[in-house]
Write a structure and sequence with these properties.
- Keywords: Hydrolase, Membrane, Metal-binding, Metalloprotease, Protease, Transmembrane, Transmembrane helix, Zinc.
- This protein is an alpha+beta fold.
- It has 9 helices and 18 strands.
- It has helices at about 1-30, 165-190, 210-215, 235-240, 290-315, 330-340, 345-365, 370-385, 390-420; strands at about 35-50, 50-65, 80-85, 90-100, 110-115, 120-125, 130-145, 150, 195, 205, 220-225, 230, 250-255, 255-265, 265-270, 275-280, 280, 285-290.
- The strands form 6 sheets. The protein has a 5-stranded mixed β-barrel with strand order 3-4-7-6-5.
- Strand 11 (about 220-225) and strand 12 form a beta hairpin.
- Helix 1 crosses helix 7, helix 2 runs antiparallel to helix 7 and helix 6 (about 330-340) packs across helix 9.
- The chain is elongated.
Amino acid sequence: METVIAFIIIFGSLVFFHELGHFLFAKKAGIMVREFAIGFGPKILALRKNETLYTIRLLPLGGYVRMAGEDFDTVELQPGYRVGLIINNEDEVEKIYLNQEVSNPNVLFIETERADLSKGLFIEGYDEDGNLVKYNVSRNAVIYEKGQETIIAPYDRQFDSKPLGSRAMAIFAGPLFNFILAFFIFLAIGLLHGIPTNEPIISEVISNSPAYSAGMEAGDFVKEVDGVPVETWTGFTDIVKSSGGEKIQLKVERGGDLVTFTVTPDTVENEAGQKVGQIGVMYDPPLEKNPLKAFTFGAEQTYTWTKRIFELLGMLVTGKFTIEALSGPVGIYKATEEVAQFGVFSLMNWAAVLSINLGIMNLLPLPALDGGRLLFFLFEGLRGKPVDKQKEGMVHFVGIMLLMVLMLVVTWNDIQRFFF
């Protein structure tokens, strides 16, 4: 149950902040947001505030922000429609009833001749006496159809009415907020847990390793390698890795004295297939709490993990990883279960890495993802006009189908890996 709660909190937070980015920048651009949803499928909870419906849905596999003007969002009144209207004190239509019985005696029924609920904001038609009448429609008018309420979206509140830069930013803001979230999680870890000092102090020497054979011990503070001063653990390991298996001379501080060792590193192959040196020592750095360093730590960790994930993507593209190495929700759940055993700060670190991963995945130029939509905006900028909506919609639809197939394959691989 603890793993389930941790998974829901982590995954829910990543989705929430991603959609919050879309939401805030859409609002900033003046776009009407019809729904802010966490999850997919049937609604579990729903709350309407002003023009936006906030929902939590059954399947916790993502979320969405539904903006006015997208996905056939607008309502069109065709000639011959019989509609019920309620007129306000300013002689504007404030309520429109479609396809439902209305008992309100103040409702005026007309047979629509012409209507524009987007740009012109008017309805023209014949009343019950056969007279042709025309009414202006309020910008905040509500349409009632089969028990559902829809606030009309004047064209200047629709997604497509906004400049290219505003639309692109509303889409880019989702992945951007995932990187921002990761930074603040790393910052919180630095403030609450502390920051590794990165001093080259050996915490453990592995048995039967080159360092063990040379006589090195836990607590040794590395000062020099081949006469070159060493100040950080990273600098020390970089020299060892690049040694090529050749002998190196280490000068360490032990109990206030300087001791010199000659070590011949083993040569091993890293994840990228490169040959590197290794002497068999472990590092468990002391921690310090410093607000300024915590800020730097947050930025450095965000950059480091972003770079690392891009490197892994490159390995996937070049065939060094196969699709079997990918994980879906089941794999993430199992990894969360393992990470949870090491405490809350490990979970926080895991959440930050997942947030960066989610941001990067969404920026990939694939149909149906944020990156795919940004790619179409790039085409629009180069062509000077938008790509045909039907063609773009078809590309995104095919992309969604392919992503669904990929998700099924990855999930099946996870199930096979972890349960069989």
